Amino acid sequence: MNESDLRELYQEVIMSHNKYPHNRRCLENCTHDAQGDNPLCGDQVHIYVNINNSVVENVTFEGEGCAISVASASILTKLLKGKSRAMCEKLSNYFQKICTRDAIESIKENEEFSNLDIEELNLLSSVKHFPARVKCATLAWHTFDHAVKEK
């Protein structure tokens, strides 16, 4: 796949998740939640999580922001639901790494996720080519980390 095809696929993924976001709603009686904002661009997100026996049974979000921010929150909710807390932490760390560094550095982590569908996550990491947008892509992930941090 050439660079033009990847850029087009990246844009399709972002626009699809922005227009039809997964799990965009308040989660009543959640066990964990946190709010995050990016004052530089106005993105705001509220992540709601239900954890039972160290498994993320449900995760939703509310918020407003640019297409990248909304798409990232949507992908997060879709990908992390049903995963162990430990796996969610690994996925969050992986995504934050590949948004700021060369993906080659994270090959080991990528192999660990070989049985998961992380193609959209890997595509979204292309935001690293636009440094001003990295915070937009990682806002929901930082907020999720804050929400589930041991208290």
Describe this structure in words.
With 151 residues, the protein is α+β, with helices and mostly antiparallel strands. It has 6 helices and 3 strands, in the order αβββααααα. The protein has a single domain, classed as Alpha-Beta Complex (Sufe protein. Chain: A). The chain has a 3-stranded antiparallel beta sheet with strand order 1-2-3, covered by helices on one side. It is globular. The chain starts with a helix and ends with a helix.
N-to-C SSE string, H for helix and E for strand: HEEEHHHHH
CATH class: Alpha Beta
Total beta strand runs: 3
What structural class should be given to the helix and strand makeup?
Answer: alpha+beta
The residue fraction in helices comes out at 40-55%
Biggest β-sheet description = 3 strands, antiparallel
Oligomeric state, counting identical vs distinct chains: single chain
First and last CA, distance:
45 Å
Q: Regions with pLDDT < 50 over 5+ consecutive residues? A: none
Overall pLDDT score:
88
What overall geometry do the principal axes of the alpha carbons give?
globular
Strand content: 15-25%
Strand order of the largest sheet: 1-2-3
